[in-house]
């Protein structure tokens, strides 16, 4: 509870502003990944994405009441339960509650819907849009209740086109514009599916600013892994020369640098070494001076698929960040059987532990596709650690994360059978609400990663499909019964 208290005090609002007080979904607070706390004065909303005890929840309610004595109600929404029900922990809900941000107002649906209609964690994004919209034509994709559109008009946009499949959300978006006194003659609200509407959007464009803030999943029309690359490839058709794109990732199961990894799909928007280093958690919080030192010793490599980066037992020359593509790290048995330890995605590092100790790589590594990597030579990097404490502290944190990851992997291999391991993998891949996922690796690679063989994995997929838990269509997996899949993921060997 101390962590929550500290973070809530850091983010207390002023002047009745709505604010995200605690964001566990960013996965930076261990054990609190399923907790989000927002304030919409005079109501505090606690959103839970996993189960916490009633005693713990009442302690949290007492904490927010102490820190926000002006709050007249504390509402909890349990998103992990079917239907995402809400219940009051304290007080009564006012007849109308508005979100207030930078003197703009937004309608809310507290207690009535899975999403309340406004996301305080996107405050920085709305401010950025407001600052860059003067005189521009703006396209707001996956607009939901149109808060980005309101921010764009507040910043002087000359025209905004909002697109979302949810007609009810767009109606609430119209109300948000009226609440703030904006003339709707320069605003469009299109209840359309994006990829079927590209030609229509081309006729309405080109746009000076395109905002993309999709949910992790929107039925079968959008899933992050499957449709983000497709979306990025189509955006140039809609963008004016020198136009800008604001891409917002709302998928906690994907790496923080996932959007950056898609930049190579835009040949006019390359991801340079500076951006790759900045998106890496290992180097979060480093100063501009430290960044320049890191750039000074780094080297860029672009290996092809299957090109061996290093072998087990080879003397470690340094470690890598993945800028784009993905890399598998694996071991080989004496008979040559491959066992994938983990798959490294954009903005993540690998082989950093090897630069310490006996200084030898403990496994093999090779790209699963053409990749862009940033390499840090061992001797140069160790020299930096002696002189720059923040880099050393981040390195300790990174090694701790890998230790927890491998501890979990050993626990699952020891205590869980293949169906439970596969169920856990699918649950994590789907995040909180995706009904459909696409496997980011081949089934043979997935089998190796789960510690089994392809034949056993195929039988497990068939059995889960026969039991109507999932439906399998090549690499696309549709989740038919989320509750049973989660139950299976928690089961242990008998």
CATH H-level superfamily of the largest domain: Vaccinia Virus protein VP39
Instruction: State the CATH topology of the largest domain.
Output: Rossmann fold
Helix/strand structural class: alpha+beta
Largest sheet: 5 strands, mixed
Proportion of strand residues: 15-25%
Mean pLDDT: 84
Q: So what's the overall shape?
A: globular
Put simply, the count of helices is 16
CATH domain class name of the largest domain: Alpha Beta
Distance between the termini: 35 Å
Low-confidence stretches: none
Strand order, biggest sheet?
1-2-3-4-5
Number of domains: 4
Question: How many E strands?
Answer: 24
Name the CATH architecture of the largest domain.
3-Layer(aba) Sandwich
Please state the CA-atom Rg, rounded to the nearest Å.
Answer: 24 Å
- Helix % is 25-40%
Overview of this protein structure:
The chain is of the alpha+beta class and 494 residues long. The protein has four domains: 2-95, Transcription Regulator spoIIAA; 120-252, Rossmann fold; 281-409, Jelly Rolls (Sandwich), CATH 2.60.120; 416-489, Winged helix-like DNA-binding domain superfamily/Winged helix DNA-binding domain (Arc Repressor Mutant, subunit A, Orthogonal Bundle). The protein is 34% helix and 23% strand. The chain contains 16 helices and 24 strands. It has helices at 2-10, 54-67, 123-131, 147-154, 167-179, 198-204, 224-234, 258-261, 273-279, 288-297, 378-387, 389-415, 418-430, 443-449, 454-466, 482-489, and strands at residues 19-23, 35-40, 43-48, 73-78, 86-91, 98-101, 104-107, 137-141, 159-163, 187-190, 207-212, 217-218, 222-223, 239-247, 299-301, 318-324, 327-332, 338-344, 349-350, 364-367, 372-377, 436-438, 470-473, 476-479. Helix 4 (147-154) links the parallel strand 8 (137-141) and strand 9. Helix 3 (123-131) runs parallel beside helix 4 (147-154), helix 11 (378-387) packs across helix 12 and helix 14 (443-449) packs across helix 15. It is globular. The two termini are 35 Å apart. The mean pLDDT is 84.
């Amino acid at each position: 509870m101390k962590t929550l208290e500290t973070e809530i005090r850091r983010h207390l609002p002023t002047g009745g502003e709505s604010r995200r007080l605690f964001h566990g979904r960013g996965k930076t607070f261990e054990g609190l990944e399923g907790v989000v706390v927002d304030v919409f004065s005079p109501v505090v909303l606690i959103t839970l994405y996993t189960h916490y005890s009633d005693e713990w929840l009442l302690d949290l309610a007492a904490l927010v009441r102490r820190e926000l004595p002006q709050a007249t109600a504390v509402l909890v929404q349990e998103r992990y339960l079917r239907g995402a029900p809400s219940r009051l922990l304290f007080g009564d809900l006012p007849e109308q509650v508005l979100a207030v941000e930078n003197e703009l107002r937004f309608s809310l649906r507290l207690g009535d819907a899975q999403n309340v209609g406004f996301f305080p964690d996107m405050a920085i994004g709305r401010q950025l849009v407001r600052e860059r919209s003067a005189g521009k034509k703006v396209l707001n994709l996956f607009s939901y209740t149109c808060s980005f559109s309101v921010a764009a008009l507040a910043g002087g946009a000359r025209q905004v086109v909002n697109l979302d499949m949810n007609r009810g959300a767009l109606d609430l978006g119209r109300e948000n514009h009226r609440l703030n006194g904006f003339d709707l003659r320069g605003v469009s609200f299109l209840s359309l599916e994006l990829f079927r509407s590209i030609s229509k959007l081309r006729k309405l464009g080109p746009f000076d600013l395109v905002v993309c803030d999709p949910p992790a999943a929107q039925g079968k029309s959008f899933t992050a892994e499957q449709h983000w690359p497709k979306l990025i490839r189509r955006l140039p058709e809609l963008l004016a020369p020198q136009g800008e794109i604001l891409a917002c990732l709302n998928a906690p199961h994907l790496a923080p640098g996932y959007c950056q990894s898609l930049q190579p799909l835009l040949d006019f928007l390359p991801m340079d070494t500076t951006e790759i280093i900045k998106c890496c958690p290992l180097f979060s919080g480093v100063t501009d001076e430290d960044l320049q030192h890191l750039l000074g010793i780094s080297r860029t490599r672009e290996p092809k698929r299957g090109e061996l980066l290093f072998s087990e037992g080879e003397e470690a020359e340094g470690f890598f960040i993945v800028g784009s593509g993905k890399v598998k790290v694996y071991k080989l048995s004496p008979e040559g059987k491959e066992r994938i330890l983990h798959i490294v995605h954009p903005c993540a590092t690998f082989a950093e532990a090897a630069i310490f100790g006996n200084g030898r790589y403990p496994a093999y590594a090779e790209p699963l596709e053409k990749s862009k990597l940033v390499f840090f030579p061992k001797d140069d990097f160790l020299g930096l650690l002696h002189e720059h404490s923040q880099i050393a502290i981040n390195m300790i944190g990174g090694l701790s994360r890998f230790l927890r990851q491998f501890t979990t992997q050993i626990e699952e291999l020891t205590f869980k059978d293949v169906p439970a391991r596969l169920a856990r993998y699918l649950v994590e891949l789907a995040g909180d609400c995706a009904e459909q996922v696409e496997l980011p690796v081949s089934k043979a690679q997935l089998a190796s990663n789960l510690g089994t063989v392809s034949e056993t994995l195929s039988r497990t997929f068939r059995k889960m499909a026969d039991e109507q838990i999932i439906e399998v269509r090549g690499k696309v997996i549709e989740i038919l019964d989320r509750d049973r899949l989660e139950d299976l993921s928690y089961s242990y060997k008998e």
